[in-house]
Write a sequence for this structure.
């Protein structure tokens, strides 16, 4: 509805209607296929020639729809917009009726008197239509999305949290020590204890946790981002022992082998700098630099 010249691409995933979760209506189809047909129907109602394609991506939800051209001439836009309004209101009426049966709230109270009657004329000003209410309660996403995957946190803040969590695991009792028998060396390397994410969170400062909660994924995401130091499995945090890591596969694609080789020794080894026993690997086997003189 933003303009006659707009095109669209959509990759349906979660089953949602205009105003809540999508309700199944046909038992003969799978839920996914029924929802795909609904999304395609929306495109047809909006006056698009809807094309379906299957993306080559590693996902079970990979059917997409593309609308590149209209089924009607530009002068008929007002008529089609009226059709779109009726369609949206009909879907919303179904959703509200379903909610009425489930929780028994009043339709008039719910929509706050903002509901348009089905078939009402759309605003004449196209800009106003795009910028104001298309559907009561609809809030479009901001044009610029804030990155919240812990990647935008200050580096010194991340380093401090990593060091605190690592020290917590290393000092936890009883400590776990792993013998390094490579080359006959029987010295021990402290792998520390494993703790649940909740236990780790309980030992962190409240202000630190508050800052992490503002990021999607929070503490777990930050620890997984720092995979050089930590391994998070089944909700428990471990110090990563690089001696147990599988060696690079010889059958790995050329591109991945090249990227892995290019990244070799481009970052300092956290264990060489911070771990009380140093790195568990000799310098020549560690993918990270043991000192600034090894940095590439």
């Amino acid at each position: 509805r933003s303009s006659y010249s707009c095109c669209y691409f959509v990759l349906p995933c979660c089953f949602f209607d205009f105003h809540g979760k999508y309700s199944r209506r046909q038992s003969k189809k799978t839920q996914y296929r029924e929802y795909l047909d609904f999304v395609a129907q929306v495109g047809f109602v909006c006056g698009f020639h809807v094309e379906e394609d299957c993306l080559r991506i590693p996902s079970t939800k990979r059917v997409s729809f593309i609308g590149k051209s209209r089924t009607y001439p530009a002068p008929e836009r007002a008529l089609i917009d009226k059709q779109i309004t009726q369609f949206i209101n009909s879907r919303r009426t179904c959703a509200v009726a379903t909610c009425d049966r489930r929780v028994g709230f009043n339709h008039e109270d719910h929509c706050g008197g903002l509901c348009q009657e089905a078939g009402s004329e759309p605003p004449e000003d196209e800009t106003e239509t795009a910028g104001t209410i298309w559907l009561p309660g609809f809030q479009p996403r901001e044009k610029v999305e804030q990155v919240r995957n812990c990647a935008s946190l200050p580096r010194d803040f991340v380093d401090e949290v990593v060091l605190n969590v690592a020290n917590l695991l290393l000092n936890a009792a009883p400590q776990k020590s792993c013998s390094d028998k490579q080359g006959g060396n029987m010295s021990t390397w402290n792998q520390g204890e494993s703790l649940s994410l909740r236990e780790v969170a309980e030992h962190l400062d409240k202000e630190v946790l508050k800052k992490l909660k503002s990021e999607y994924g929070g503490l777990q995401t930050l620890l997984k981002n720092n995979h050089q130091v930590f391994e998070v499995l089944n909700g428990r945090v471990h110090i990563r022992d690089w001696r147990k890591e599988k060696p690079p596969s010889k059958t790995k694609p050329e591109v991945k082998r090249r990227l892995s080789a290019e990244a070799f020794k481009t970052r300092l080894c956290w264990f060489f700098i911070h771990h009380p026993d140093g790195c568990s690997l000799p310098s020549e086997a560690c993918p990270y630099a043991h000192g600034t003189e090894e940095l590439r």
Observations:
- Confidence is low (pLDDT under 50) at residues 101-131, 180-186.
- The longest strand covers residues 63-70.
